[in-house]
Write a structure and sequence with these properties.
eight-stranded mixed β-sheet, 8 strands
Length: 247
């Protein structure tokens, strides 16, 4: 993309004093790992691609089925049966053909996540299970890569971020100390469609903040109730006894 086209495409963001041309170029030069291309990964991925993040690695081993389409808006009916990572990559390229996308359409283990996280600017956790969330938290701490975390189920959602480069930042295990906690999934409990759009969009917004060097949710967890349309927040301090980020 030439400079004139770059300036035109992102003109509405460049006009913001907090971004400007320098900030937009910073987004262009950033790379992110998005894990999960479902309900949360759909809006997060779409907005981050549209906002001009230059390189994305999208990880999802699952295939699209009809029940996904109620909330996973990055996929289309015609894509049923296709790998979610492939379907998402095609949609993101249609929005922003200049973005560099790498698809990871297999089950990633800890070593795989470590390898992928070594040279990215940010990890965006859009998964739906605690084991993977804890694993990504460990990877974030080991590689000193910021992590934006979201979760949504039934009518409730939450979003926060962690920055292991900041000695005062908590980690995901400070929020959930018990790693044996069992996951409740949308398949088991249900979820209202727009909820994941709200939380995933919040993840995209915080991701932009982190990439621009001004995280807003580090040390704060925002909680949303879709039935009452009520936002609440709680302060999250680093746990000095945390087995992940403590001494």
């Amino acid at each position: 993309m030439n400079q004139d086209s770059f300036t035109e495409r992102y003109s509405r963001q460049i006009r913001l004093s907090q971004i400007g041309i320098e900030g937009q170029e910073r987004l262009r030069d950033s790379s992110i790992l998005v894990v999960g291309m479902g309900g949360l990964g759909s809006p997060a991925g779409l907005y981050l691609a549209a906002a001009g993040v230059g390189s994305m690695r999208i990880a999802d081993f699952d295939h699209i089925d009809e029940s996904n389409l109620q909330r996973q808006i990055i996929h289309e009916h015609a894509n049923i049966g296709q790998h979610k990572a492939e379907s998402a990559a095609n949609r993101l390229r249609s929005i922003n053909p200049d973005i560099h996308i790498k698809t990871l359409d297999y089950v990633l283990d800890y070593e795989d996540f470590m390898e992928q996280a070594q040279d990215v600017s940010l990890i965006v956790d859009c998964t739906d299970n605690f084991p993977t969330r804890f694993e990504l938290n460990d990877v974030s701490r080991q590689t000193l890569t910021p992590l934006v975390s979201g979760a949504a189920i039934r009518w409730e959602g939450q979003v926060t971020s962690f920055d292991p480069r900041n000695s005062q930042s908590p980690c995901y295990q400070c929020l959930y100390p018990d790693r044996s906690i069992e996951s409740a999934t949308c398949e088991m409990e249900g979820v209202v469609a727009p909820l994941v759009g709200i939380i995933g969009s919040m993840q995209a917004m915080e991701s932009v903040n982190v990439l621009l060097g001004s995280p807003a949710l580090c040390g704060v967890v925002w909680l949303f109730d879709g039935r009452t349309m009520d936002w609440q927040h709680m302060k999250l301090n680093r746990n000095p006894a945390c087995p992940c980020c403590g001494p």
